Amino acid sequence: MASSVVRATVRAVSKRKIQATRTPSAVHKIKQLLKDKPDHVGVKVGVRTRGCNGLSYTLDYTKTKGDSDEEVIQDGVRVFIEKKAQLTLLGTEMDYVEDKLSSEFVFNNPNIKGTCGCGESFNI
């Protein structure tokens, strides 16, 4: 069962065709977040119906792999993808971006057909 102790700010970005991967920045941030959560084994990525454009990403800590979750391991970091999100995340790169005013996980998804003005929701 996923723990909703924390949710990351996530936005959809449609730029270029990218292979399914997580950047070193995202891997490092997930490792850092999980250090304080020894009872959690990774993070779970999902999609929910919300926002002005249809779908929005979710990111939660998780203690176990769900029966229908896809598991992706990179540099020791375990990311579980909910069944509902698997097709929407094909070819997507997960990144973590920090600047002086904000920090957030960003999903560079080549399958996106449109996003809302704020970039929080998308449609495929």
From TrEMBL:
GO molecular function: 2 iron, 2 sulfur cluster binding
Cellular component aspect of the GO annotation: mitochondrion
Superkingdom of origin: Eukaryota
Keyword Transit peptide (UniProt): yes
Signal peptide bounds: none
InterPro entries, A to Z: ATAP (IPR016092), ATAP_core_dom (IPR000361), Fe-S_cluster_asmbl/transfer (IPR050322), FeS_cluster_insertion_CS (IPR017870), HesB-like_dom_sf (IPR035903)
GO biological process terms held by the UniProt record: iron-sulfur cluster assembly
Keyword terms of this UniProt record: Transit peptide
Domain Core: 23-120
Cited NCBIfam families: iron-sulfur cluster assembly accessory protein
Family named by the database record: Belongs to the HesB/IscA family.
Protein name as annotated: Iron-sulfur cluster assembly 1 homolog, mitochondrial
Organism: Gopherus agassizii (Agassiz's desert tortoise)
Lineage, top ranks: Eukaryota, Metazoa, Chordata, Craniata, Vertebrata
